[in-house]
Amino acid sequence: MRMPLLLFVVLGRHIGADRLASMLLEQRRQQAELLAGYLRGRDRRCESGADPFVLATLGYGIAMARATIRWLDGLGPQLAGDPGTTRPTVTLSDDNGGRCRARKFGSPTLPAHTR
User: Fold this and answer.
1) Number of folded domains in the chain?
2) CA–CA separation, 46 vs 16, rounded Å?
3) Could you tell me if residue 92 is inside a domain?
4) What's the CA gap between 82 and 53, in Å, rounded?
5) 112 within domain boundaries
6) Would you say residue 113 lies in a domain?
7) Is residue 54 part of a domain?
8) Using one digit for the tens of pLDDT, what is the confidence trace for 47-94?
9) What DSSP string describes 7-66?
10) pTM for the complete prediction?
């Protein structure tokens, strides 16, 4: 996997505990911001009749941000720093309560030369 976050973790012993803890907290803050933005985007689109492809893409972003936050929160204090450090609260369980329904799309019609 080529992800800067994982690179920081795998090289953590060379980065130093304080620096790594700071990087992980910043990553968590960024993921919380992403999650909030994806949730706002999903809710906004749900109000105006959602395209199921856009919703699927937003759903992926929401799932990835939540998974990353959970993973970061599960790191032990030896990686994530002082367990007493205040972390921003993030609601991870919001599933939109089934309020959003995607528009129905039929099968795409392919041009004759591609059939």
Assistant:
1) 1
2) 45
3) no
4) 41
5) no
6) no
7) yes
8) 888 889 999 999 999 999 999 999 999 987 767 655 555 544 555 555
9) HHHHTHHHH-HHHHHHHHHHHHHHHHHHHHHHHHHHHHHHHT-B-HHHHHHHHHHHHHHH
10) 0.70
